[in-house]
Prior knowledge:
Structural class: alpha+beta
Order of helices and strands: HEEHHEEEHEEEH
Number of domains: 2
CATH class of the largest domain: Mainly Beta
Largest sheet: 5 strands, mixed, barrel
Strand order of the largest sheet: 3-4-5-7-6
Number of helices: 5
Number of strands: 8
Helix content: 25-40%
CATH architecture of the largest domain: Beta Barrel
Amino acid sequence: MNLGMGGPAGSNKAAAKRQPDSAQPQEAIRTVGPMLTEEEGEHMRTKLVVIVTALGLLLAAVPAWAHHAFAAEFDQNKPIKVQGAVVKWELTNPHSWIHIDVKGTDGKTVTWMIEGASPNNLYRLGLTKESLPPGSVISVEGYQAKDGSTRAVGRNIVFANGKKFFLGLSEAESGPAKP
């Protein structure tokens, strides 16, 4: 009976197409996605995990690079005590900054930038956004920047009414230990 396969020869050709040739061993290759074998897919997943992990560690380290130690920027041998009017108070992380206008011995006004603790630490110590309005006269004790600029890390601030506040940096961050 001929079923439209082109006779006995045609049915052998069709059978050959459906069944693998036993003379040539065929390996079963399981694919993952359109063109990757299972082994290649596993290798790609491993690479992706390594890259994502490395990127995560790098991003986690960025804040550590941005933060600095006292000794990197300030000189323990240059203690300062300045008095002036608050120009502005920046409550930004990781440290706050108080800008004050200080009159020099020559009568010229110079703006000093005083670094303090983080806003959260200062709030815990009782300082709020309203504690240092522009124009408030304060005295600051601290340590000048190594580059000799009008920048310092503050240790204490004293208000005109005599009230004294610790600027919230730990002993290790705020400068040398007192004997």
